[in-house]
Amino acid sequence: MLTAVLLFLPLAAALLLLFIKGAAARALALGASLLEFGLAVYAVFAFKTTGSAAFNLNYAWISSAGINFHLGLDGLSLLLVLLTTFLVPLILLAAFKHNYDSPSTFYALVLFMQTGLIGVFVSLDAFLFYFFWEVALIPIYFLAGAWGGERRVAVTLKFFLYTVVGSLFMLAGFMYLYLQTGPAAGSLAAHSSELSAFYNLTLSASEQSWLFWLIFAAFAVKMPIFPFHTWQPDTYTESPAPATMLLSGIMLKMGIYGTMRWLLPVVPLGVSQWGFLVVILAVIGIIYGAIIAIRQQDLKRLIAYSSLSHVGLMAAGVFSLTSIGLQGAVVQMLAHGVNVVGMFFVADAIERRTGTRHIPDLGGLTRRTPLLTVCFLVMLLSTVALPLTGGFVGEFLLLAGVYQYNAWVGAVAGLTIIFSAVYLLRMFQRVMLGPDSAFSETITDLTGGELLILVPLIVLVFWLGLFPGTFLHISEPAVTNLLSLVGR
Amino acid sequence: MTSIILLSVFGIINLFLGFLRSNKVLLPGAMLLLLIVFGVNLADWGQGTQSFYNSMLVVDNYTVAFTGIVVLTTIVLLPFSRSYVAAGEPNLAEYYSLLLFSLVGAVMMIGYNHLIMLFVGIEILSVSMYVLAGSSKRDARSNEAALKYFLMGAFATGILLFGVALLYGATGTFVLSELSTAVAAPANASLQPMLYIGILMMIIGIGFKVSAAPFHFWTPDVYEGTPTFFTAFMSTVVKTAGFAAFLKLLAVALPAAQGFWLPTIQAMCALTLLLGNVGAAVQTSTKRMLAYSSVSHAGYLLIGLVASRGNLTGEAASGIFFYSLAYSLATIAAFGVLKLVADHRQRDDYAALNGLGKTNPLLAFSMTVAMLSLAGIPLTGGFFGKFFLLAAAVGQGYIGLVVFALVMSMVGLYYYLRPLIAMYLRPAEEGATPVPVDGVQTVTLALLALLSIALGIVPGFLSGIL
């Protein structure tokens, strides 16, 4: 029941928002998202840490086809739901800083998106998962398209086509798997699309070999993994700040999560055949993203490439198939979500004050903005993976996982920390320090409302850095369970 | 059966309503009559198989289901004729009567059990459509459309009739069930070529009506020239009835000739998908895009025919039902919005829709749902329509065809997004005023969108009913 409430509460709020205007809309959107976060926190406390899913909900959805409306939360899902519900109120607060046209619709779309995202994280039926996977795309397309920058039409079209085409491959893969299954117990339908039915399939190595790519296509585009990433920098740059936060903070995790839940245990032989190639691609992405980030002049674009580089490491950690790598990916999903949302928010704050994101136009901003400088620096150092921050725990575990998998690859992947220090500190230097620019004297510091967004993020950065056990503890049985399924 | 009688009587009543001075009662009158037909039709659900006219016509769940779609489609289409009422169109009563009569033809095509009945049904439907295509008498394009449709349609029906004759020659019967036994165990082997030519000609004839490639070439021109209100009818009712007839013919009469028609339909299917989708992608006019898109949807429905493998019940048949319904709802909404916008802004290219999200949020939303449904994006009925058909095809082992269909639906995404881009991402022209929409149209569009979404969220109540 709790899962269903988590799923439908944002949707209900989104529908209500269509009829409400003005300040009431803000209150409703924020209130609903905070209530949702409260529910997620409650779920964390009510959750019994086992490997199997809790808070199950299972109804026949299309009974003639054996497709069920099956929701459940295991540790992995729970953490991602927690991340989503934590970030959405902050993203809404960030949206309040802008005077968007038809704001109610904007907030409604954000909440609608939240339903899609939570649906992805809690679905335990393949077609339900696919359903929410696509549902999450519709609002973000409109958010990015209707409120985006000048090149939005071409950019969002590319984004939409890339992701849907990727997803259709996944759908084809799911259909094939579905037709291999037998009937579920007590069901009249000939097949079942339950996750457990997929896990129980025995497929030949050659089947798994091509199924791997069909399913992985969707996840690779969503993350994105090199060379499926070309939609990402443009879309991140052109989208309005809240949409960018949704994309980078949460939507990207759909790809990692999907890989962990719907790829690794379903086609383990395909993973063992192609895993190394994916790790290599991921590492190429790490280096490639980092090198391009160094040369960027646009603040948002730089962060976009930085995100590309970091997601590569997460993918590599997942495909290392080690417990430590997967756990690292879990922590890093949380840490990256927090970091990247913080970074984009800071970039947005600077842009709102100066009207530009062009790095050479900025400089010497620190004098008047001590708070901004501190917040920016914390977010940045966590992204660079400085010890004590969440980024450090995540990346350290990930690198350890990749190193266990293959020492050479681990060594190359480790360059990410050096590279990100280079491009991020260089950016910080050019934006905040350095010679004065036109804005040095006039820029104002963070307001209380903005601190309201950044402080929770900073708290979580240190929480993740100092007490990662809080979260690792929740996900550990789920990860062990997944790995045992892969190793079968 | 009752629905045929009712439709004919109501058609005549409607003609007499035309003698009234005012057009005002016509629209509510026609809608009311159709609602009665819809209800009466549903009453036959689950009543088993009833035969009429010496078994020339049967009413079973199959007939009820597809009749339900065509009647419902017409009901939700009617409110978009409001501009005719407002303009004091003198022939409005005739238009409505022709629509009702053509529905008689559609119901006969769905319920036939005898090839002559099929032919008569197709003719009733087609003749009404020829007239309606040219109903905008002073518009050269409408005249061109009517002439093109009539000439080619007449040839196609001729070929169909020739096919019927050859089938009769080869088997000695018009009745579907008898045909099936005669085809399975031919009495005279030397007549086999005649049989196959007959089947081929019937496929050509029906393929023309449902605009399946390579017999689709008339579709874009005719759809474009025909007044949008009737284009919507053509692309939904004619296609639904055509596919119901097609499936019945192949499944009831010709299952034994599968070895012959399966490859033919497969080839048509692939060709239709290719030409429909690629054709739609290069259009600049929304109406022509929708015309090509209707060709492409014939392609997806043909997958259902392939997957049915000669079964009138089961996954594939249910899939065709579901798909036709989802397609019809979305298409009516799309043409409806297009008609309202085009009437107001005097153009029907993509740019006509610019900024509609701002000026008319409801129209834009309705169009959005329609486009997403046609594109097969989840949350809409179109997704499950495609899903059921493709799943049935994969289940029968047509992996190649399904992969091709998926690739083609990726092409489809591109052109279905273009109206959305115009509506939400591009600003309206300077001084663009909201498109006037009346209350009934508002309710209808909202209902269409809700139905499409309902089919996309709880498809269970209509899936697998055949």
Description:
The complex is a heterodimer of chains A (488) and B (466). Chain A has 488 residues and is mostly helical. Chain A has two domains: 1-235, no CATH class; 267-488, no CATH class. Helix content of chain A is 73%, strand content 3%. Chain A has a two-stranded antiparallel sheet with strand order 1-2. Chain B is mainly alpha-helical. In chain B, a hairpin with a 4-residue loop joins strand 1 and strand 2. In chain B, helix 14 runs antiparallel to helix 16 (361-375). The radius of gyration of chain B is 21 Å and the shape is globular. The chains are: A mainly alpha (488), B mainly alpha (466). The interface between A and B is medium-sized, with 35 and 33 residues.
How many domains of chain A? The number is: 2
Order of helices and strands of chain B: HHEEHHHHHHHHHHHHHHHHH
- By secondary-structure content and strand pairing, the structural class of chain A works out as mainly alpha
In what range is the share of β-strand residues of chain B?
Answer: under 5%
What is the makeup of the main sheet of chain B?
Answer: 2 strands, antiparallel
Give me the number of helical elements of chain B. Answer: 19
Tell me the Rg of chain B in angstroms.
21 Å
Give the overall silhouette of chain A.
Answer: globular
Q: What's the total count of β strands of chain B?
A: 2
Query: Could you state the oligomeric state of the chains shown?
Result: heterodimer
Distance between the termini of chain B: 19 Å
What is the share of helical residues of chain B?
A: over 70%
Query: Residue-averaged pLDDT of chain B, rounded?
Result: 91
Largest interface: A-B, 35 and 33 residues
Question: How much helix, percentage-wise, in residues of chain A?
Answer: over 70%
Rg of chain A to the nearest angstrom? 21 Å
